[in-house]
Specification:
alpha+beta; 17% helix
Length: 235
């Protein structure tokens, strides 16, 4: 994907930076802003993202999708997460997408994706996609239960800018990405989950076009979930 790339030594949040400056950027232009350090990096909801200065890949994209209907906006999440998973798999096996769009290496979290879409006339007018990937950080100090970085996996430091370039080369919102389901964490087998009714065991069946997760429990009952309605139980 062709993008204008902006590098910042430091900012509070690359997502906030794009929201603040998007009107001053080229109209319809795809823009990437990446930084060495975020003072207030965003995670999902009220979560923050731990990152040591200069060690990880922290960036946001301002995208202008074409002809993606509001009801199909999860296609953006699919394309972004698949492109990132493919990029990391060039360095090591074991990377997958934990529904809906966390990046995992086996049972440990390597990165997260936060997508904010602006709708107009029933279509996605604009997307701001924030991505944080643990790259060269070898120690983590927050209470996050299972972080891992690429360098911990490969045993050596990685070039953050090259990772960004490789990801952008793979990202294409106009082309059908490889099957999102084939990249999913715990794609095969029965696994433990937790919802508002308690713990259960199920297999992953598919992900609907609107992003809903379909599971089949050990009693053969199909269960569908929106985001945040079910949790993976990870030892």
């Amino acid at each position: 994907m062709d993008c204008r790339i902006i590098h910042l030594e430091e900012t509070d949040s690359t997502n906030r930076w794009l929201k603040t400056h998007r009107l001053s950027l080229g109209k319809g232009e795809n823009v990437v802003v990446w930084t060495d350090y975020q003072t207030d990096g965003l995670g999902c909801g009220s979560n923050t993202w731990e990152s040591e200065r200069g060690k990880n890949l922290l960036f946001s994209l301002l995208l202008h999708p074409r002809n993606i209907k509001a009801g199909n906006q999860f296609e953006i999440s699919k394309a972004v997460s698949v492109a990132m998973c493919q990029t990391l798999r060039q360095h090591a096996d074991g990377f997958s997408i934990k529904w809906p769009n966390d990046i995992y290496w086996h049972d440990r979290k390597a990165g997260g994706i936060l997508i904010e879409n602006r709708l107009q006339g029933g279509v996605v007018k604009e997307s701001i996609v924030g991505i944080g990937i643990n790259v060269n950080q070898d120690k983590f100090f927050s209470d996050a239960p299972n972080p891992v970085s690429l360098c911990q996996v490969t045993g050596h430091k990685e070039d953050r800018k090259q990772l960004l370039d490789d990801f952008l080369a793979r990202l294409d919102l106009q082309a059908l990405p490889p099957s999102y389901e084939s990249f999913l964490y715990r794609r095969n087998g029965m696994w433990p989950y937790h919802d508002e009714d308690g713990e259960f065991t199920a297999e992953l069946i598919n992900v609907e076009p609107d992003g809903r997760l379909t599971l089949k429990d050990d009693k053969g009952i199909l269960r569908q979930y929106q985001f945040k309605e079910v949790q993976f139980i990870i030892a």
